[in-house]
UniProtKB/TrEMBL annotation, chains A, B:
Organism of derivation: Enterovibrio gelatinilyticus
Keyword field: Lyase
Protein name: DSD1 family PLP-dependent enzyme
Residue ranges constituting the D-serine dehydratase-like domain according to the UniProt record: 262-369
Similarity remark: Belongs to the DSD1 family.
Lineage: Bacteria, Pseudomonadati, Pseudomonadota, Gammaproteobacteria, Vibrionales
């Protein structure tokens, strides 16, 4: 049975639903991965896309020049406004976004863009020539067929790199993401996915160097593989995003435990259906997101597992249905619910399937620190 | 083939992804349902939860006293700040939210709350006694076993209504929602669901009146049933939310056509995978939501269908996968995609599965009017 007295906080004055962050668990998660990656000789470049709050930035980034990854130009602009200067924008670049990237570069922010097509390289060179600007760029490598990128041994990799290297852009290296590692459920397959990610990145870097193209940055990472590396020789940096908050997907994969999950949604029981054995809660997809990322895991957690205010995990119930502002808590194994234990008006925590998605539904997070009993409100960066 | 020149707008200067609203289609949808319901002798009480923007309120509400439904107290507070006074808060009430409801009531806003348990009725009476305040209240009726509410013939309905009627609250009537109508895919079953909703509400109202409890408001509605009533005799009002924007779920149910969908996400092609036949777009779940509401419909639309900039629907492709900021467009029938027709940098519109969910991912909507070529930015109400 799950026991975690850290879930007991004096937050009863806040209206539900709201996103609750246990700051000490969050800091512990950050520290754990930083130590692990630095111990293996690489830098950790956290992905800002999960937390996306300037209030959290000082915990992710120990110095203004510490490395960070972003998923939107908006995040980069927000970080730059606070003096952070070492950024990778890790979504394929399109022409329309270059003026904003250019503006950041002219302010002294080293923002690197990502691409995997000849067309994008041409756009980048053209933009650089037209605007007298040198855009730092990485090429995305496909290590496992999951999404975008170029295979490490593809001649296209050399073609694009040469276009950039001899053009106006500043080609800096390669980046890959083991998206398929989300389908690993034991340590052996996690290690295999991690090894494969490392090998693909090294292969791409060597391929470039053999063609006399320098490859300064060799960037890899996903939260599952980031916790599973054994050797990072030749890798300059590791990226991971959800590891700060963690979630049920990551618990299902096995890189965290349920009591490592720092983010949850606090909700109120607003009704009972005794005939059907349901509790109604005031957290629907608007507060939880519609993410069903555990659907294909060995343990399907519905729309989230529940913890009561004493810190106890409800073992036989989960959020089985969500509407916009309603969630339905039902049994997963036919066992009946103790309605007296969860009266109308009582509060529960919903642990998220996917913390990135759940956090994205909240403009503010309520952050509680068990060490000094403080309560902070963190503001999320919205939009693109 | 779908042709809609209304999708051609001069929005190329906006960075993607963004939520695009075709104002003329939106207004046409609003007008269609208003006329239909008023023609049947009832009032239309739009649900604000889909659009959730004060900029849209004047189109939904012709007068400050026009009826509106909300899903959060925050929406009610925003509407009240603009002088709107006739509100139903249609999510089961919990004690913590009563002080904010009370504050609205003291400002002269008629905000009615909803409940379906004895506990909530007791809380309401207690609150009214303690705070010298009369809270207007409706009882939720379960017409089809979908979610919350009390069966219309249940003795519990009378018990709760009597508690309220003889207590400090102001019992005003009944409210029901045919949630199961989302599973209808032909006109006969839509009409049956609509009839059933009407009958359940009338039965509950008669049940109360036979027990000498007045029942002034008889409120019903869901977007599928709202377009399918034949007789609203005895019904005072109809609620519907998504009918302004419409979406692929509603097109699948058959209450709109694809060219009635007023909201879409504009996205840019950021990559090609020619081997797999994929286009990468810069709209992932962060812009589209993770809603898979068409998954169980006869036509599963993945994470959304696509329209090119000439207004043509892509018949053989849809968004098949989403990550946070990436979408993958793939074939649904094995037919290959014309990469030359969709080069890196070109724009597409993604039609949403569920407009409520897609709109919820955007703090602002870009609203284009084909009549006067105007462009407005509407601001969404965030939080609870």
């Amino acid at each position: 049975m799950f026991k975690n007295s850290e879930f007991k906080h004096n937050d009863e004055t806040l209206d539900t639903p709201f996103l609750f962050v246990d700051k000490q668990i969050f800091l512990r998660n950050l520290e754990r991965l930083r130590k692990e990656i630095e111990g293996l000789g690489a830098a950790l470049r956290p992905h800002f896309k999960t937390v996306k709050s300037l209030d959290a930035a000082p915990y992710l980034l120990l110095e203004k020049a510490s490395p960070i990854t972003v998923s939107t130009v908006k995040e980069a602009e927000a970080l730059a406004s606070e003096g952070y200067t070492n950024i990778i924008y890790a979504v394929g670049i399109s022409a329309e976004k270059l003026p904003r990237v250019h503006q950041l570069l002219s302010k002294g922010v080293e923002i690197r863009v990502l691409l995997d097509t000849v067309e994008q390289a041409q756009i980048l060179n053209q933009y650089g020539n037209d605007n007298h600007c040198t855009v730092p760029v990485l090429i995305e490598i496909d290590c496992d067929g999951h999404r975008g990128g170029i295979r490490p041994d593809s001649p296209l990799l050399i073609n694009i790199a040469q276009l950039l290297h001899h053009g106006s852009a500043d080609f800096q290296g390669v980046l890959t993401h083991a998206g398929e590692s989300y389908l690993c459920f034991d340590q052996a397959s996690l290690r295999a996915a991690a090894d494969n990610e490392v090998k693909a990145a090294l292969k791409a870097a060597n391929h470039l160097r053999c063609a006399d193209i320098p490859c300064e940055i060799v960037s890899i990472g996903s939260t599952p593989t980031a916790h599973s590396y054994q050797d990072l020789n030749g890798i300059t940096e590791v990226r991971a995003g959800v590891y700060g908050f963690f979630d049920l997907i990551m618990a299902g994969i096995g890189v965290c435990n349920i009591n490592d999950i720092a983010a949850s949604v606090v909700t109120t029981v607003i009704g009972h259906n005794k005939e059907k054995g349901w509790l109604f809660i005031d957290a629907g997809w608007m507060a939880l997101s519609s993410d069903r990322g555990t659907a294909n895991q060995p343990k399907d957690c519905g729309y989230g597992l529940l913890i009561d205010r004493s810190g106890k995990l409800l073992l036989h119930h989960q959020v089985i249905t969500v509407n916009q502002e309603h969630g339905i808590v039902g049994s997963v194994d036919g066992s009946s619910i103790d309605f007296d234990a969860y009266p109308v008006g009582c509060r529960l925590h919903v642990l998220p399937n996917h913390a990135c998605a759940t956090a994205s539904m909240h403009a503010h997070y309520h952050v509680f620190d068990t060490h000094d009993n403080s309560h902070e409100v963190w503001t999320r960066i919205l939009g693109w």
